[in-house]
Amino acid sequence: MPRPTKCRRVCRFPETREFSTLGERVGEPVILTVDEYEAIRLIDKEELNQEECGTQLGVGRTTAQKIYETARRKLADALVLGRSLKIEGGDFYLCNGNSEFCYKRDCAKRQQKNEYKIEKCDNITERKQSV
Fold this sequence. Notes:
Layout: E1 8-10, E2 18-19, E3 30-32, H1 34-45, H2 50-57, H3 61-81, E4 85-87, E5 92-94, H4 108-130
Parallel strand pairs: 1-5, 3-4
Antiparallel strand pairs: 2-4
Helix pairs in contact: 1-2, 1-3, 2-3
């Protein structure tokens, strides 16, 4: 009996979840899971190595490597075969912003929390001074 799939930690949902070619659509869309998208983002965009990516996702290096390879294969299918690409589903949970595993800079969730707190405090301070 195989081990159950471990949920992967994802900083945020992608802003754009569907990409398609111009012209007529060819076949069914390629489905890229949110955790596969996150692996592509971490390795190719954030320039993390596979071990750092695995730590960020909350899985081992070899699992991160498999997720990444599957994602790249799906991206290649969409590009080469002219199929649309949808990002949805997968075994993941959203980062709560308290993760000590974020690399290079604070995770997006933590940045949002910090910005909100700062703005909220600034607004309160400005109101007190004007009253």
